[in-house]
Structure prediction request, 650 residues.
Amino acid sequence: MSQKTVQTDIRRRKAWSGLFANLGLVAYFAFSLLPVLFILALSLKADADQTTTYLWFTPTLSNYETVLGLDDGGGTYIRFFMASLATSVGAVLVSLVIGVPAAYAAARYRFTGSDNLMFTLLSFRFAPELLVIIPLAVLYQQLGLYDTIVGMIWVLQLVTMPLVVWILRSFFQDFPAELEEAALLDGYSRRQAFFSVVLPLVRPGIAAVCLLAFIFAWNNFIFPFTLTSANAQTVTVSSLAWLGGNQVKFNLVAAGAVMAALPPLVLALFIQRYLVRGLSFGAVKG
Amino acid sequence: MAGIEVSAITKRFGKTTAVDGASFTVADGEFFCLLGPSGAGKTTTLKTIAGLTEPDSGSIHIDDVDVRDIEPTHRGLAMCFEGYALYPQRDVFNNLVFPLRSPRLKLPEAQARQRVEHIAAMLGIDHLLDRPVTQLSNGQRQRVALGRVLVRPARAYLLDEPLAHLDAKLRTTMRAELKSISHTDKTTSIYVTHDYVEALSLADRIAVIRDGRILQVGTPTELWEKPADAFVAQAFGKPRINLVPGVIDGSEFIGADGAIRTRLPELTESVSEAQLGIRPRDIEIDPTGSAERGDRFRLSGKVYVLEHLGRHTEVTAEIGPDRVSLVAPRHEVADLRIGDNVGLLINPNSVHVFAAGDEGNRIS
Prediction:
């Protein structure tokens, strides 16, 4: 075979494999993004169109106005939204404040039962949430945590904390211990070394885990559904109201859902630059 | 500045023993080298002194104070890591100034800047101060790592292969620089290296370490002239010392199959099997066989390999089943060819006798 035929052959094969890869991607994204498009369309449909599946309709913003309570001056959605924000951010903060040092300790120190401890931390996540929801509801009623922001933060933290600890532990394990040792000998205490040397370098990991934890907390349904009623109810649960009653309003649910998707989206965009940059441990010899 | 005393330190990692009962004392202001092959336990010993690794047994005293319960932060030592351990998010200046800004030292900013600039100039990295360390070459990183140690006053410097990744020319320059610093500063230093030339050139005293055990501690001259065992003898010199195995018969040494025979000075220990250690530079070529022999003994062999290395030539000769290497001035061996018969003259006083085995004790 001549050099030229080999080259054209390789080029042709590359073209084909590129085509297949792209077709695969298109199919994948169609499958994952079409539901989003569908909900987006539904949120803009008038009541008459709400059970249709086609995308040809006259769009209206009235669903958003209704959900936000603009026409009757209610503003309940905003309240649910703020409750969601408060509980999710609160849960993420609690998980970070406790989880980052915990993950660091789990990565750096071997102590009796350290593996068991890590395992126990996950155990809450083994069972479906439904399994614990009844005792939890009783407990919350007794403790006065039912339908409170603090109560919600505490229960959502149970979801996000294991995530934070497990993901960050592997981050810390990959972190070269020599950098901390250098800081110790440079005259910094362990705590100071952690804050001035370690923490800045694991920021991408913390950013990633923040985003994940926030999404998990924000989208949690079962806990706010069973443990709140009015004061601390979140957007995920509040949308249900439009499905009850004597008329089912899918378009209103869709409008509520679209707005509820915004905070994670905004957070993801905001955090992206930390995510893509990744870790640069270039200063330590490999 | 401080004296450091290491007593019977042992450290195990799982089943491997990294340091095995190592003891040595470093005097105040002394430049002390730990010399050994890779995996000998040099770094572990250093980290134990620094407090980064806790020994399983044994103790460390700095200025006669047991430092068992003193955190690394408060031991007042400075350490240069073999893997550099530079802070990747900081540029060169901020790496160098980091120890000066520490809560321990808290040097005034102007003074800190001055010190950093002084050290950077000395190490030839002053043009890199605002460069991120991730953009440096290995040689530059190594100099930053060394600079981060030298920039501050410390009770002692712990230096782990600080010149290993420099190119040959820079290494020689930096070695001279280090030597001059240690001469003027008189800061106690423990210097880990696998390069015997570095150890010989820098150290006041050297400890040879193998498999976590200290084999011998002494001045460069002592180690060179009176190595305690065959391993220490082999650790110094290039080409390595020739070790010729044989048996002792009365006061005579007989090499394998009798090709080498020589009378020995009095031995400190009577053994049946031994090895002769002869440094390549202690062997002279006697091509004609007519040279004045004096009290030297003569061996005849055959040229196996000739390596012309500038002014000197390394000759490997076969004597019976043994191979012996020697270094001769080039003009003396200009006519020599591979396969030629050659006479070798050896002064018996320069010969070391060791018991058999790769750590056979010195018995001469």
The domain at 68-277 of chain A is CATH 1.10.3720.10 (MetI-like fold). The radius of gyration of chain A is 25 Å. The first helix of chain A runs from residue 3 to 42.
